[in-house]
Design a protein that fits this description.
Length: about 220
């Protein structure tokens, strides 16, 4: 699957390929779900695990900010797949922090990671998955070199901007029905440079109640 994504020109980074090959997607999708098909898959609670080409694209956009020792935040960590990739890339000296507002997904993502190549990082503490409202970020390990948001926001939450390090990059889908994947770079003087990478379709970044109601 990873080879195919590279052949189709989705990404060309060796480090991204390495991380995606190490983290077996089969451990992160519900039993009976075809794991290696390039499509989002339902994981319950009205949400999906993102398609592999979106994971690959986001990893590549963030690659320079996922160097060993750096801090990475994954909002809406869902299955934990991408957080595990972050953890492998930033390594034991770095920090990979997932925030997810469905407690059951927090529990199942931790179980998924425990079976994966990233298990030792979870045990050792450089990788953690936390229950909470991701719109508030996770101040404990701020500032972050890389922030990924896996659900579409109406606008970029201010706490996430505040928790981005100067020189850091955030990748976040913004919009309602029509969404843009935005790449937000915080310059060293604290100003922001924002560009649209591509049009996307993500589930909303919302409250737990609204998500479970499906509104
Ligand atoms: N990137 C993950 C999940 C993508 S789906 C993966 O590929 O597995 C988006 C996730 O965001 C869902 O798990 C959903 O429960 C979560 N989410 C939505 N709004 C949230 C919020 N306000 N705070 C934390 N998590 C949120």
């Amino acid at each position: 699957m990873v080879e195919q994504l590279q052949r189709y020109g989705i990404f060309n980074s060796k480090k991204v390929a390495e991380a995606m090959e190490k983290v077996d997607r089969g451990l992160f999708v519900p039993a009976g779900t075809p794991a290696y098909v390039d499509s989002p898959m339902a994981i319950g609670y009205n949400v999906t695990i993102s398609a592999p080409h979106m994971h690959a694209m986001c990893l590549q956009l963030l690659e320079k900010n996922l160097q060993p020792g750096m801090h990475a935040l994954d909002i809406g960590s869902g299955t934990g797949y991408l957080t595990a990739c972050f953890a492998l890339m930033v390594g034991p000296e770095g920090r990979a922090v997932g925030v997810e507002h469905i407690p059951e997904l927090v529990t199942s993502s931790i179980k998924n990671i425990e079976k994966s190549e990233a298990a030792s990082l979870l045990k050792q503490g450089s990788l953690s998955i936390n229950a909470g409202d991701g719109r508030q970020g996770w101040p404990e390990f701020a500032a972050y070199d890389a922030i990924h948001v896996g659900a579409a926001a109406r606008e970029i939450p201010q706490p996430l901007i505040d928790q981005l390090k100067p020189g850091g990059r955030m990748v976040i889908p913004v919009g309602n029905v029509f969404q843009d994947l935005k790449v937000v770079d915080k310059n060293l003087d604290g100003s922001l440079s924002i560009r649209n990478e591509t049009s996307v379709r993500y589930v909303p970044l919302t409250s737990r109640d609204a998500q479970l109601r499906g509104t």
